[in-house]
Specification:
This protein has about 450 residues and is an alpha/beta fold. About 35% of the residues lie in helices and about 25% in strands. The strands form four sheets. Strands 1, 3, 5, 7, 9, 10 and 11 form a seven-stranded mixed sheet that branches. A six-stranded mixed sheet has the order 16-15-14-17-18-19, sandwiched between helices. A four-stranded antiparallel sheet has the order 2-4-8-6, with no helix packed on it. The protein is elongated, with a radius of gyration of 34 Å.
């Protein structure tokens, strides 16, 4: 018996229909899971209550007109449910922001794009789109707008602008939409864009000519220093570091000194810089009204915010003059936290955005010995609110003779402290900052 030639095309068509049905079923199921169930508005609850009442009263009183009117109201609710769901289910959104890191005082900008149904018979609707902003941002107006979506309407664009007010890791989003049916009976609220993280880094304060000169002088001194009592050959040597070529090892001087030394070429990188930020609360609580009246808060939080701005300003100035800037702080677990080991200023600024004032933090002199990978010819910048004579002596003794130190404070230190630092080769920077807010 010959096989019918019609069977294979029919089977292929049946298989294609089953595949399309399965695909649309999966899409519909996903849309159902993704889209919240519509909630009746105050008008919707009223219509539902009146419709149920009319149907019940009509059945009891055997009045067909009342039953028909009640059923019509309930059908109107069901129709609104379908129309609201058809608008909300296929909505897709995206967020585009030029930068994921902004500075305090800058404007954060983003653009939200919404796309509705692509079917030609899909409904057209006007919906409310709202962007959720963290407390770190202040928006001039509400971050919401009414946009129109539909099959024949171009994608809706919603621009958001907000001023960054506080440093830290902030959350932007989610973007939510509110869809109502044409009768105002039902409402759907659903997120269309997931939240994103935006890092708000500290702002900068302009450094005076004296402060800039002190930074430049410290860096240039590190680059061209010649060891006291040494020869011209000694000035071209430095201790061996992992990764240095073996051909640069000066074997005679290494044998004389007892450790490997390499020749420092004229094309060597500028020195590295370590910025140590004091996060002890007591360092910022000791500022009185005679020092800086606006910072004489009992908790020291405002003074610490000024110190963070000073650290960010010094980091930006040193990044232009050194090969690497590393931020060192005392972590909450008692370890030393290094930020920016890869040499990027961005990592240092992000680290400054996350630091917090603590009462149990270690002193800076206990943190500096834990620094890893710092160039012996580098420089150390310590940022604090108040430095005593004992702390100044400890800072001087904690750095070796081939490293330069800078003490950056937000109030002028005592003459005794300045004298100790000057005799130890340290430079003192006083950088008062005004108009910063406390961190969250």
């Amino acid at each position: 018996m010959a096989r019918s030639p019609v069977a294979p095309p029919l089977l292929r068509r049946a298989g294609a229909a089953r595949s399309a049905l399965s695909r649309w079923t999966r899409r519909g199921t996903a849309a159902l899971r993704r889209t919240p169930f519509p909630r009746p508005t105050a008008r919707g609850w009223t219509v539902i209550a009146v419709g149920i009442g009319l149907v019940g009263g009509g059945l009891v009183a055997t009045t067909s007109v009342a039953v028909s009117a009640g059923l019509l109201l309930l059908v109107l609710v069901v129709l609104g449910f379908v129309m609201a769901f058809l608008v909300a289910a296929p909505l897709r959104g995206s967020r585009v922001a030029p930068r994921a890191m902004v500075q305090v005082g800058e404007v954060y900008r983003e653009r939200v794009t919404l796309r509705g149904a692509t079917m030609a018979l899909g409904p057209r609707s006007t919906l409310l789109v709202r962007e959720q902003l963290d407390d770190a941002f202040a928006s001039v107006a509400e971050a919401e707008a009414y946009v129109e979506v539909g099959p024949s309407v171009p994608p809706a664009v919603f621009d958001v602008e907000a001023l960054a007010m506080h440093r830290g890791r902030a959350t932007v989003g989610p973007v939510t939409i509110r869809v109502e049916d044409p009768f105002g009976l039902l409402r759907i609220d659903r997120p269309v864009v997931a939240p994103d993280e935006v890092v708000v880094v500290p702002s900068s304060t302009p450094l005076s000519a004296v402060d800039t000169g002190a930074l430049a002088g410290a860096v240039s001194a590190d680059e061209g220093r010649v060891g006291q009592g040494g020869s011209a050959d000694d000035s071209e040597l430095r201790p061996y570091r992992p990764g240095d070529p073996i051909r640069r090892v000066h074997w005679a001087q290494s044998a004389r000194r007892g450790e490997l030394h390499v020749r420092q070429t004229t094309q060597a990188q500028p020195p590295e810089a370590v910025i140590a930020l004091d996060v002890r609360r007591e360092s910022y609580q000791q500022l009185g009204r005679d020092d800086l009246a606006e910072l004489s808060d009992l908790g020291g939080d405002a003074a610490f915010e000024h110190a963070v701005v000073v650290a960010a300003s010094v980091a930006r100035a040193l990044a232009a003059r050194t090969s690497r800037v590393v931020l060192v702080t005392d972590d909450a677990d008692g370890a030393t936290r290094h930020t920016g080991d890869a040499g990027g200023l961005t990592d240092v600024l992000v680290g400054l955005a996350e630091v917090h004032l603590r009462s149990d933090a270690r002193v800076v002199t206990d943190v500096l010995p834990d620094v890893r990978g710092r160039d012996v010819h580098g420089m150390t910048a310590v940022v604090t609110g108040n430095c005593t004579a004992e702390q100044a002596a400890a800072l001087v003794s904690s750095t070796n003779g081939s490293s330069r130190g800078i003490l950056a404070t937000i109030v002028p230190p005592d003459p005794v402290v300045r004298g100790i630092l000057d005799r130890g080769g340290w430079r003192t920077l006083v950088v008062p900052v005004a108009g910063t807010g406390a961190t969250r």
